[in-house]
Amino acid sequence: MTKRALEDLLHAEGTSLSNWVQDQLDVLAGQPELPRYAEIRDPSQLGDPRGVFEDLSHVDWSFSNEDTSYLSHDIHPYPAKFIPQIPGTLIARLSLRGELVLDPFGGSGTTALEALRLGRRALSIDANPLGSLIGRVKTSTLAEPATTQELRALVAGIRARLASMPDSPEGWIHDYEQYIPAIPNLDKWFEPWPIAELALVKGSIDRLKDPVAVDLASLALSRTVLRASNQESETRYVAVPDDVARGFVLGRFLHELGIVVERVRRTSDEIQYGLADFVTEDARFLPSEAYPDSSVDLVVTSPPYGNANDYHLYHRFRLFWLGFEPKDLADVEIGSHLRHQREQTGFMHYMKDMSMCLQALQRILKPGRYAVLVVGDAIYGGEHHDAATKFTEAARQVGFESVGNLRRPLPDNRRSFKAGRRAKDESLMVLRKPDEPVRLALEPPMYRMWLYERALRRREARALLGAVRSGKNGLLVVRTDPLTATKARRMTFSRGVAWGSHIERTWQAVLENGLSTDPAARKDPKYATHGLHAYKGKFYPQLAKALMNISDVPEGGVILDPFCGSGTTLLEAHLNGLQARGADLHPLARKIASAKVQVLDLPPSLVRDVVEALEMRVSGSAGVTDSREQFASEAVAEIESWFPAPVVSKLDWLLANIRSLSYGVLQDFLEVILSDLLREVSHQEPSDLRIRRRKTPLKDADVFGLFGERLRLQMSRLEKFWRIRGFAPSAFYPAMIVEGDTREAATLKALGLSEASADLVLTSPPYATALPYIDTDRLSLLVLFGTTGSQRRPLEQALTGSREISPTQRRDWEQAIERRQHALPRPIVRFVDQLARDNADTDAGFRRLQLPALLMRFFDDMRRVLLNVEGVMKPGAELVMVLGDNFTHVNGLERRIPTTDFVAMVADQIGLERLERVPITVTKENVIHSRNAITENTALRFRKPS
Q1: Band of residue 13 on the pLDDT scale cut at 50, 70, 90
Q2: What are the start and end residues of each CATH 3.30.70 domain in the chain?
Q3: Which CATH class is domain 438-513?
Q4: How far is CA 524 from CA 573, 711, 886, in A?
């Protein structure tokens, strides 16, 4: 293709050769490296204003060599915006994850985008509706299929019109007359063809239904307007007739829409969990109903400079074509040069407006928190005004403390035209709302709590916040300093935290209820991925989290579960800003735990794409064959004995497609979903833990339908989590989970744990001889791992707490009791010895006769695990174990096995300090063996001596 032909083609599409070349270079260069900032983790780091200012003083605020156009920051022209590194640095150093950052002069959303990128929530307010539109688009994602579908349809429609354009614009002008704005002297500023084509585009956008698609297309229209007009340039409001060719505007719009979509796409992965509100509002008048007292954690903003810019004029034609009235913005625009000339106002009038804004900010900012304003000097009537000094005086008058001012030199190539001169520098005003004690009211959940949950609620409140007292209607009342008060978001059994009239939801309430403001009347133990797979004997997530809160582990601390099971503790640690480490000897448990925790760290777009591809294959699964290639050859016969032949074929087909489309964590996630339905499609009686076949064997089962239902359910929970992740009060740290035996020190080493490296050990060990884990999950082990019956037996025997023991092991332990060749506390041995003697005098079956050896092995296994665990605990770290006693029968009488007491003795023996026993009561599950379920549990708390 010749250069001239390429230029003609690009011109038809509304772009130039130079722009096209730059676009290609941008694609080849890829996404630039993003700025990374050192973030604070502990609110106490904000408690010393002098220290905070000293820290900020060491920053090179010029950022002269930094790229300022990364992500979608350059998605639309906007005058006098500050560079993203400024709010990024301030947000990282002056706020915590999940907190609310306000920019009352939000402009094009620079602060909001940086807040989302750094895991905060954003509130952006600006009087300019175009600024709100730009901010919404900057922080949009293409997560919903409807967005992409509607944009494709829009592009197709515009292209169709471009391919068959009429000879004259009059027809389109008539057909789309309602979309032509009432611009004074319209014919002076726009030629007929641009008017017709802009109206057509506006009408096409008006038919869109998806709000994100509407925003993206509207911004592309805004990017097109000035190029379609006769205005000389962005900054010169002079009409220069321009012979715009027929079709140029439509091609230009398609080009601009492509740029907007690409900018949003490249930004999505960085802000995919963001929560931002963009409000078109006058910052002088922020009603308390919408903006309550003490509701914002940080203010970062660059107010308009006095007598400097005219946003309503700069964006005049864009505002008209987007359906807004520029005069409405002109009437409220603070610092407007034209307004100053029209109303003959001076600097004092500007400062009066800004004082009203400062007063509103002081009201809605939380005590002890910061507001940073980037301000520049002003010139009115030839007189220079030191804005930073005047702002500081005004801020003090409305109740702010002045922490200090930082001068920021402006690089020569980035100096902007301010009030008739080139500004050489500007000031960062660091303000603080005075620190004062706050009264918090912690609202209870809507569901009815057990007595022990109420006790845990008070305990975690005391651990996190200090002294607590009871209020009316289940409220817990706390008086504390405002920085400690931030920990209230971590509460488990509280749905809301009232700061006076302002109520913030806890992270737990958001996890369970999503963005809904109506709290559920029932406790949800399956939020996020907790409900991914059924697993017997696990403890529920709220309990795990409450116990973590009582131990008050700092963000980023290491938490270990040496019997991680299906990953309840690990997932809660991950959700609450801790480094999760876990191990289990059960292969399926490791797989479930890995899938539950680590799928949350995958890019949502990746998960959606793979799931969508799998669903498409499943919907067209008519070609299922009799293949058995996905199963271990030695396991096929046993698989065929437990599943109907058609089901075996479907399982093989489904596994083949899962494994061809996914790998690693995502493969684990999909295979675990499949695992969860295996009982339902097998000859196994679904409600029975042990081996029991159905009375009537299955002939077939709807494997694909059941899998699809479960997949959609789990994706809906993931989507819910992705939408609310921006509320998380902590960063999310990578988890490490291994298949291994924690009786062996090498397993803890494989988890990256060394001496004195764990901050908390939280676990629910297998209860002595309570559950047959391997037998319960034998179908999953058979199908996914090829573990046959002969291979399962030694695995079952190897588990701590197993009911299975070989004759040799039994004989060895019986001799150990008799010869006292063991390292267990004497009360345990006396109990076991007496139990053996009592059973010997009865006609007890083999299960009861081997129980003494099983118990000795169990308590010795616990001793070995606890020895290893104690070695990796930091001095002062806690060990918390949730345990329950079980029972046996001797001579027809029930006898309690005091597992909890005995494990506590083992912990005492190895040198851990016993702190307390926390009683916990649970209910029985609706299964055949519920008569054996343990309903009385205890959380044992220990501490490693400092």
Answers
A1: very low
A2: 438-513
A3: alpha beta
A4: 18, 19, 27
Q: Which position has the token pair 């448990």?
A: 589
Ramachandran category for residue 373: left, alpha or beta (phi over 0 → left; psi -120 to 50 → alpha): beta
Rg (C-alpha) for the chain, rounded Å, is 33
At a CB cut-off of 8 Å and minimum separation 6, what does 72 contact?
A: 113, 137, 138, 139, 263, 264, 266, 267
Give the pairing type, strands 121-126 and 100-103.
parallel
- Interval 660-683: pLDDT, tens: 999 999 999 999 999 999 999 999
- Quick check: 928 pLDDT over 80? no
Query: pTM for the complete prediction?
Result: 0.90
Q: Tens digits of per-residue pLDDT, 480-490?
A: 999 999 999 99
Instruction: With beta carbons less than 8 A apart as the criterion, state whether 619 and 654 touch.
Output: no
Phi, then psi, of 874 in degrees rounded to 5: -70, 150
Report which listed range, 526-540, 633-647, 810-824, is most confident: 633-647
Q: Are 558 and 751 in contact (CB under 8 A)?
A: no
Find the Cα–Cα–Cα–Cα dihedral 514, 515, 517, 520, rounded to 10°. Answer: -10
Render pLDDT for 164-185 as a digit per residue (tens, 0 to 9).
999 999 999 999 999 999 999 9
Q: β-strand 558-561 against 758-763: which pairing, if any?
A: parallel
Q: Which two tokens stand for residue 583?
A: 């191990």
SS3 264: helix
Poorest-pLDDT segment among 371-375, 482-486, 773-777: 773-777
700 compared with 808, residue with greater pLDDT: 700
Q: What dihedral angle (degrees, nearest 10) is formed by the CA atoms of 9, 12, 14, 20?
A: 0
Tokens 């009235």 belong to which residue?
A: 325
Measure Cα distances from 20 to 7, 12, 23, 26 in Å: 10, 13, 5, 10
Nearest Cα to Cα of residue 834 among 898, 929, 908, 745: 898
Q: How confident is the model at residue 770 (pLDDT cuts 50, 70, 90)?
A: low
Short-list 859, 852, 850, 699, CA closest to 765: 859
43-139+293-350+375-432: CATH number: 3.40.50
How far apart (Å, rounded) are the C-alpha atoms in residues 851 and 860?
Answer: 14
DSSP-assigned states of every residue in 856-900: HHHHHHHHHHHHHHHHHEEEEEEEEEEEE-EEEEETTEEEEE-HH
Q: 667-706: string of b/e by CB count within 10 Å (b at 16+)?
A: bbbbbbbbbbbbbebbbbeeeebeeeeeeeeeeebebbeb
With cut-offs at 50, 70 and 90, classify the pLDDT of residue 22. Answer: low
884: closest CA among 771, 764, 798?
Answer: 764
**Tokens coding 922:** 């649970």
In whole angstroms, how far apart are CA 437 and each of 69, 99, 485? 42, 19, 9
Residue 197 makes CB contacts below 8 A (sequence gap 6+) with: 169, 172, 228, 247, 248, 249, 250, 253
Q: What is the spatial distance between Cα 189 and Cα 229, in angstroms, rounded to a whole number?
A: 6
| AA identity, residue 61 | W
Instruction: Identify the weakest region by mean pLDDT among 338-347, 448-457, 793-802.
Output: 338-347
HSE value, Cβ hemisphere, 13 Å, CA-based, for 510: 23
Question: DSSP character for 689?
Answer: S
The residue-averaged pLDDT of 193-206 equals: 96
Q: 762-784: buried (b, 16+ CB within 10 Å) or exposed (e) per residue?
A: bbbbbbbbbbbbbbbbbbbbbbb
Q: What are the counts of helices (DSSP H) followed by strands (DSSP E) for the chain?
A: 37, 25
DSSP string over 766-794: PPTT---HHHHTHHHHHHHH---HHHHHH
The pair of structure tokens assigned to 877 is 């770290």
Which residues belong to CATH 3.40.50 in the chain? 43-139+293-350+375-432
Neighbours of 807 (CB within 10 A): 9
Q: Which residue has the higher pLDDT, 554 or 933?
A: 554
